[in-house]
UniProtKB/TrEMBL annotation:
Organism: Henriciella mobilis
Gene Ontology molecular function: any one: metal ion binding
Record carries keyword Hydrolase: yes
Native organism taxonomy: Bacteria, Pseudomonadati, Pseudomonadota, Alphaproteobacteria, Hyphomonadales
Family note: Belongs to the peptidase M16 family.
Peptidase M16 C-terminal domain boundaries: 198-381
Signal peptide boundaries: 1-21
Occurrences of domain Peptidase M16 N-terminal (ranges): 42-189
Protein name (Swiss-Prot/TrEMBL): Insulinase family protein
UniProt entry tagged with the keyword Hydrolase: yes
Amino acid sequence: MRAYLAGGLAAVAFTASPAFADTAEAEWAPATFELDNGMEVVVLPDHRAPVVTHMVWYKVGAVDEDPGKSGIAHLFEHIMFKETDDLGPGEFDNIVSRLGGQNNAFTSWDYTAYYERVAKQHLEKMMELEAERMTDLIINDDPEGPFISERDVVKEERRQRIDNNPGVILQEQVMSALYQDHPYNITVIGKMEEVSALTPEDGLNFYRKWYTPSEAVLVVAGDVTPEDVRIMAENTYGQIEVTETETPTRGWRPVEPLAETQLLTHSDPKVRQPNWQRWYLSTSYQEDKEMAYALDVALDVLGGGRTSRLYQALVEDQKIAVSASAGAWLSLHDTAPAILSASPSDGVSLDDLETAYMAVVADVLENGFTEEEVERSRNSLAASSIYQRDSQQSMANTYGSTLAIGGTVEDVLSYPDDIRAVTAEDAIAALRTVLGEDRNYIEAHLLPAEEEGDQ
């Protein structure tokens, strides 16, 4: 099963604070180097078990698609598993499975990633397989061939995962309004009519432009040494010749502020639980690191869990909501959305829920946070990031996603210290900037069909 990342649509979660290593322990420090053809390599030694996680991150995502070609980044992820000059249809998956491994892939607006988890003696074989499909993928106009058959698979995936999901339909509408002319305004899976029109020639052009060593980051986490990885990488990826003379230009660009506040409503008989949301434009780790860290803490205090201000006020005390939260997709490259959300208890209207929710927000904006709750939040965020290093895949995801959008290894290593440095003043200043009265937003209501007229 292939996956794609589209903010809250994805099962693979990268929208919260990344998982970061502790700078105090040298054994967790990564080794980095670059192959002669420009491929970046990160090695994360972890000798607790004789297994490795092998990931290739391509610096291309939905943000880089040409106008009218939405969905091609995600479609290409599917095609990569089909057929090459030396691998028959489905043989890639079969080889990994026979070796007792696991593999998958995912696409985001900002990158595309492929991974395998295998016993360490099979690492070089994984490199051989990935190098093969980086260079010799088969793309043709055969109706039963990999491009056209997978295009139909993606169209069906869109029907099942988006067109049949009222919450995701509403989210598409919100993102389109929030990001206007920015590429984030189109869901990663693409528009149905544009996916249907993609041609094998589009696929070949995309492949030749983006699937090159210089546009890739290799991350290997597990029971390996940097020296071993270097030798294997040079024997496999290092043999791929550089064909592109110019570095492709990424599709990132500034996000225009919202010109006005809007209300979007979507109702559907499949909706069982109404939901209220507000979407604001905020920042990102790449755009403004210090403000993003401060906002990370602020939103955690405001609506990050069961101890947050919102949950305690609306769910525990007033009992007018069954859920209440606040968060932001700060790991996007460009300006991220900050999202306020709540679902009402039985008999509570969205208007009453909104009034109560925004009363909590107004109190916070006026009176600020206490030192104790900010300290608790920043320590929790730092601790969670360190605990996640126990997972090879989490660490490989963190380093790969950071480097794929232009971040550095130091960004990863310094996170615990940076987040612990956020003060109560920093946190409330960030929140006031994003949620200030002068800021426009998109309000979204998800409703059962029969209740639309009552709101």
